[in-house]
Amino acid sequence: MKKKLFENFIHGVFLITGLITIVAVLVISGYLIISGLPAISEIGLIQFLFGQEWKPTGTTPMYGILPFILTSIYGTCGAILLGTPIAILSSVFLAKVAPKKIKTIFVSGISLLAGIPSVVYGLVGMLILVPFVRSAFNLSDGASLFSAIIVLSIMIYPSVVKISLDALDAVPREYEEASLALGATKIETYFKVSIPAAKSGITTSIVLGVGRAIGEAMAVMMVSGNVANMPKLFESVRFLTTAVASEMSYASGLQRQALFSIALVLFVFIMFINASLNMFLKKDKKGNSK
Fold it and tell me: What pTM was estimated for this model as a whole?
């Protein structure tokens, strides 16, 4: 009887926490929609999404966020393309090659990287990376999209490694033993058996990395220059997140509403990424079951 009551209590706790999560998402979604749609309707959806100038305090205010959208996309894609291969190779090394002592040391270091606040990454990038980029490429200012990509790739590295490592550790040992018994080398086994078997976990880690990169504000604000230019690799740029963070403290009227609209666009991007992940994983599971 006591055991059944305890199980019912735990079930109730899980149910309540799940409902709280759903309610929180609905409240955030509703608040962003209510706060963001008025500015979009006043400015015009096409002008807002595809306008190339952001001058909310100009004589003739302009509210085009295309530079912010493209910068966020380019920066996120660049960080994923640069950081993900290194992270996956690191996870393969730690899961399959590294001795236990080395693995323990590396995993502890990666966990430490994951716990560092983003402002610290931004500060180190501003003091070390930005001057290096300026001198290495002979630029007038090293704060650029390139610097932001480097910082973001470092920031997503720990999360991709940790989740990919867990996925690779969960691959049944029988898969690898069967591959080795058929004459495959260890390297071939790791890349042709272990990684495909852990594909869903690795994909999840990449999508979480995308979410971390596209949602980062403080670090990229400190190394990107925070100027509303159309994105170029070695010019100062502004991301969707930094546009909101840098102007919300003093904005008012239509400008403030437009910032909520930017947050709504960012929220839609992240929801689209998560939905795409769920669809991919469902198709992958159906394909494996067949």
Answer: 0.87
